[in-house]
Amino acid sequence: MKQEMISVEQARQLPALYTKTVPTDYIDNLGHMNMNRYYDILGPASGAMLRLMGHTEKSRDEQHIGNFVLMHVMKYLKEVLVGEQVTVHGRVIGRTEKKVHKMYFMVNDTKENVAATQESLNIHADLQARRSSPFIPAIAEKIDGLIADHSQLDWDAPVSEAIRI
Hints:
With 165 residues, the protein is an alpha+beta fold. 27% of the residues lie in helices and 33% in strands.
């Protein structure tokens, strides 16, 4: 059964990847955080998730591997205002030989709500060939560990119909 949204408490069961207090320059002419600034917060969170999965500067430089984004599904659920603190929590949904499906939950710690979600489909890449490639065993093992941990939760991620692997 598809779940519409999760609670703040559920999101906080996942790894906290990045926290930021929203600065004045993130606010648009409507008085809330500009939609482009969500990516300024989700980007570092995604980087933290990649490190949990084993993608590091060392693996990029020495093994010439990386991660390319194929698709994002962004949902803006609640306004975020200047001075509010947000924390991004991440979940790994599943993977194939080359792709990984993840979901991020932006929690507004100030208002105690889930302000936004981002679903992401990424592909493992050989950076020398500039093509997709299977996950190396060390990264596949770390991703599988995260999937196993996250599948122990008693709630399903509210995934969209847009991403399937």
